[in-house]
Amino acid sequence: EPGSPPEAASPPEPAPAPVSAARPAPEPASVAVSPSGPAPEPASVAVPPSGPAPEPASAPAAAPAPCWLDTETALALLASPLAGMDAADLRRLGRALREEERAGGNAVPPPSDELLARALAEPERLVAHDPVYARGAQRLGALLATARERLARGGTAEEALWDLWEGTPWPARLERAARRGGAAGRNADRDLDAVCALFATATRAEERTGGRGALNFLAEIEAEDIAADTLTRRAVRPDAVRLMTAHRAKGLEWSLVVVAGVQEGLWPDLRRRGSLLEADRIGRDGLAEPLTPGALLAEERRLFYVAATRARDRLVVTAVKAPADDGDQPSRFLTELGVEPRDVTGRPRRPLSVAALVAELRATTVDPRVSDRLREAAAQRLARLAALTDEDGRPLVPSAHPYRWWGMFEPTESKVPLRDRDQPVVLSGSALDQLANTCALQWFLGREVKADAPATAAQGFGNVVHVLADEVASGHTPADLDVLMERLDSVWNALAFDAPWKSEQEKGNARVALERFLKWHVMDRTGRTSVASEHDFDVTLGAGDYEVRIRGQLDRVEADGEGRAYVVDFKTGKQAPTAREVERHPQLAVYQLAVREGAVDEAFDGVRPEPGGAELVQLRQGAAKKDGGETLPKVQAQEALQGSAGEWVGELLATAAGKVLDERFTPSAGQHCTHCSFRASCSARPEGRHVVE
């Protein structure tokens, strides 16, 4: 995404780890050979011819002072997580800086790389440029200036690092990635570990004598960089399988060789090897003729011969044969081996992976249909896998050890209930719908266990809009869009977004939502006036055999000319319920019951009002054309609960209270599963069933 450091960009490691030399391991016993081309050689770099650079036609009268930051370092910093700029942002900023030079009278401006380095060293030059593409450079330039000032005042290397670390959104991004888990989470954990090691190194450098401070730190970091020969073949484990191309296998031998994927169209591959410029035709004596299909076929046959003759004792050649004639077919080379190919139909009993092997062994150890001897053999194999470690002593198959297994103990059961049945059940309006209609397990894990995911940027968006709406309703802030946007700007940067473009997009959405709110706030709604905003309430309601204590906060309470109370709930989500769902919206209905029980008496001077109804005001969504159009929010009203019309609410309360007291939290699959944090451990979902069952 624009503005955020891409994962594939591999930003510079915060602290290079020491490199240890390993003794080359002996060759393994087997090898898998691929028909693809040779392994890529190290990247080469084009070097311009030596000699003086051509002089420009005209030059400025005075040469600029030398920059303290070289271009290579500047570009690396701009592409790092400290600035988070991508190639497009760098190009746009470079062009803008060159245009600025031309406008200043320099007909032949320096290269953009040099201008970027100079602008980064003097961040005041970036003030006039569009933050859309210059924000990262502006932020990084200010950070570098702060760090330089810190060091100039005698600050330590650790303090300068903290200035750089805390001045970017990188820590928040790493934290979010680490919490999400998976491959990205593991990468984030490694980055955070590297940052911790970097700060520890800075602390050690400062503790040393000599008073050199940051220079000591830099010297220690530089000393940890050990040059390595990238052309040297990597050491391999003696008991491992080597995977290589047929070109790389030339001249080597193994006891067992597997040549996999020998498909027609892949081997032989009769496509031209050259590129658009046909560099493959450049020969010693000039431009050569392109290879004919026959010559290509002969070359591919020789390559297959090389791969097949690498085996001393046993050769296995595999291919896939599709039932249809136009599907994958084995290569014509298989018929030239002198051995009749053997068709293997059906699927293997398990995937050929370590995880599948561990699962099969675990299942065998508890299978009553197999013999005791086989179960013991499976347990011994698991023990051998669990004992395997790498050179650093870390387990190679951690899942083989029983301490990593789930479901090894019987479920526990407490004889003492979690709640006293003689006391009211404490719930909120939103919890009622989740317990009774959505998913009781999701409520239990999120609210009771408190295992829900941390607040998202969408929740932060809603909180900010709610606070500003409360300030307007309470009179602390005037109903002026410019004033509200100033208040929004003061807190917006505290919200964590995945990328700057997303932050800008959501900020625009927040502006539209506030515009709708202000127009709705000042319009005449049948004489209703606001009497309370963000009003806390705590009431106890009877529900069949149970008592339910409802606690919460009303976004807004209004009164009409007849003294009836209307509850308004502001919504900032992207989805709105249907009109039928609003009629039986549990949260709005509970709010109306709370009004009946005295939740807003204080706002009505101690007089208990009759509920006039409740409304959802969808600030993200515009109203229909007949209701005022897009400039007004969509308003969804629930009629006042009169007489027996509200009996369904009592039934919902009783159902929810019964589930909580009986501790019956069974999962229910539905649309709500899309954004559920517990799908991977839920028995109602396929991905969670293998974990809990």
Automatic annotation (TrEMBL):
Residues 1-63 are annotated as: Disordered. Keywords: ATP-binding, DNA damage, DNA repair, DNA-binding, Exonuclease, Helicase, Hydrolase, Nuclease, Nucleotide-binding. The keyword Chaperone does not apply. It holds the Pfam family PDDEXK_1. Residues 200-321 form the UvrD-like helicase C-terminal domain. Residues 18-48 have a biased composition (Low complexity). SUPFAM superfamilies: P-loop containing nucleoside triphosphate hydrolases, Restriction endonuclease-like. The keyword Transmembrane helix does not apply. Residues 1-17 have a biased composition (Pro residues). InterPro entries: DNA_helicase_UvrD-like_C (IPR014017), DNA_helicase_UvrD/REP (IPR000212), P-loop_NTPase (IPR027417), PDDEXK-like_dom_sf (IPR011604), PDDEXK_AddAB-type (IPR038726), Restrct_endonuc-II-like (IPR011335). It comes from the Bacteria. Residues 428-682 form the PD-(D/E)XK endonuclease-like domain. This is PD-(D/E)XK nuclease family protein. It comes from Streptomyces mangrovi.
